Amino acid sequence: MTKRYWYVILTYIIMQFSGVIFSPLLYAALPISEFQAVIYWTIFSFTAGVIAILFIMKPDMQIPATRDASKPGAIILWSIAGLFMAYFAQYIAVIIEVQLLGIKQGSANTQMIIDITRAAPIFMIIPAIIAPIAEEIIFRKIIFGSLYKKMNFFLAALLSALAFGIIHGEPEHILIYSSMGFVFAYLYVKTKRIIVPIIVHMSLNSISVLVQFLLTPEDLERMQQQLEQMQMILVGG
Q1: Residue 215: partners with Cβ closer than 8 Å, 6 or more residues away
Q2: Does residue 228 carry a catalytic annotation?
Q3: Are 56 and 161 part of one and the same domain?
């Protein structure tokens, strides 16, 4: 792994955890609430972090694409297909978690993002745009890409997907994160374009945030009950 890749990973770590130090300082320095300080610093740190990551990765972006890399039309088609593939993989993972492992549905991480977005809608740009760019560069371009040079696809995708799940802080849903990680890694290998998993990742996050942001808790509960009934039918429960 090149030195600049380590700089990217270090930038990502700083981006993720800098709020522990700087949010309280922002709260003390400005006439804002503690909650606002966290929101403002998170938006600033993630935006600055992605800009720094893209700057560090500039040499990679200047390398000409390989001859077998997908053309614009194929990028669009694979992005659409990849979205359905990610949803299918996610659905299978949910069935396994709920029906076989007895894990309760629902993500504390997603719920926290929705709660923050409802209080400050501008925060939506983090999960919808900024985080997917950073995470695909880190977990697919750098981690998976480096592992794939030394081992087969399955093992490289598994290890990078596990790292992807761990950073989200929900080990009980590691199967869901891993399933998405496998799809993103496959799209990256198939198209030779990191922009494809970025687009799919952005689309997944945007749809999830928008749906939960626009619907009432009662609507979400009713949809979840319908989903559980469908799962019971599919698995013969």
Answers
A1: 223
A2: no
A3: no
Q: Which residues neighbour 231 within 8 Å (Cβ) at sequence distance 6 or greater?
A: 94, 95, 98, 99, 237
Task: Please return the burial class of 143, using the count of CB atoms within 10 Å of its CB with bins 0-12, 13-18 and 19+.
Answer: buried
Question: Is residue 201 annotated as part of the catalytic site, yes or no?
Answer: no
**Set 34, 97, 136, 168: catalytic member:** 168
Q: From the candidates 97, 135, 136, 201, which is the catalytic residue?
A: 135
Question: In this predicted model, what pLDDT tens digit does every residue of 2-26 receive, in sequence order?
Answer: 899 999 999 999 998 999 999 999 9
Residues in the chain: 237
Rounded Cα distance, 184 and 182, in Å = 5
- Residues 51 and 120 occupy one common structural domain: no
pLDDT of residue 223: 55
Question: In terms of domains, do 31 and 125 share one?
Answer: no
